[in-house]
Amino acid sequence: MLRSVIRGSGSALPKRAVSNAEMAAMVDTTDEWIVERTGIRNRYIAGEGETTATLATEAARQALAAAGIDASEVGLIVLATATPDQTFPASATQVQHALGCNGGIAFDVAAVCSGFLYALSVADSMLKTGMAKTALVIGSETFSRILDWDDRTTCVLFGDGAGAMVLQAQEVDENDPAAPGIIATKLHADGRHNELLYVDGGPSTTGTVGKLRMRGKEVFRHAVTNLAQVLQDVLAHSGYTATDLDWVVPHQANARILDATARKLGLPAEKVIVTVDRHANTSAASVPLAYDTAVRDGRIKPGDLVMFEAMGGGFTWGASLARV
Ligand code: UT7
Questions:
Q1: Model confidence pLDDT, tens digit, residues 286-299
Q2: Is 281 a catalytic residue?
Q3: Is 42 tagged catalytic?
Q4: Domain at 181-323, CATH class
């Protein structure tokens, strides 16, 4: 059978790091509150010339280099973002142009913090049906540009960044448990919860970009329940249990969500990749950024069984299991 195999990963961060102490100089907050409630200690904020497309391009270049694959081989780019450079065209087409691999398929996917899971699933399906042989799946965001910098309940939580993976279609023996590639994915959306996490503007309503609004406590509650459930569903569907997992690479929204979800599944905390302390919540970028961090520091190794999961605005949520 054909599977989509992860060949390499990359990531990119803006130059400017912003500590909690710097945030406390801007709004009525403290390092203690942010660390205790979220685990965040630092975030990166895009400066002049740094955009969703430029960060995505840098992450993509790194991923291609790690995979040893030339950009000319890329036939599909799926970019997950809620903060595109322009309302249209898709930022994926700018990445394609910057990489010099014009002519293939390139488009953006909007599922906010779950965007990377949605993008990965779309690319997986397109690779398995032969639409392309080599895909770049990217999550890239500049949330700093849609934050209300006077709202302490949201502005301390988010950061900018990008992560990317190169995937290729490969024939594998489905009876071989060591066969690499994406094994199973489940995605969900529930549009009833729009008002808990949204941006108060858009091309078709206000004609403005708008600012992020969130009722954090309610989002938190839904996140733990939905994530634990979708993780269990993916495990059950693929015939694995939580103890089989080498790593969980979760969306990095809040260290307490990661702890609570792991506890619900009986997963030891050491198996959960945590980068929210360094990067804060980078929305669609957070899963590939965390994955690339753990690959490069040697924790995630070839052959490991890895669960990716995320939950965000919409609500949308999902999980994907892969042997890397
Ligand atoms: O990525 C998409 C998914 N997003 C998420 O998963 C976010 C989920 N939610 C969360 O991570 C948490 O709910 C937050 C970190 C947003 C908030 O933590 P919390 O423990 O739920 O705090 P809270 O909203 O209940 O606020 C507690 C107190 C409030 O004061 P009172 O009403 O108790 O007097 C807030 O006004 O903390 C206050 N507060 C702050 N204090 C200092 C809120 N933000 C701040 C702040 N600094 N930045």
A1: 999 999 999 999 99
A2: yes
A3: no
A4: alpha beta
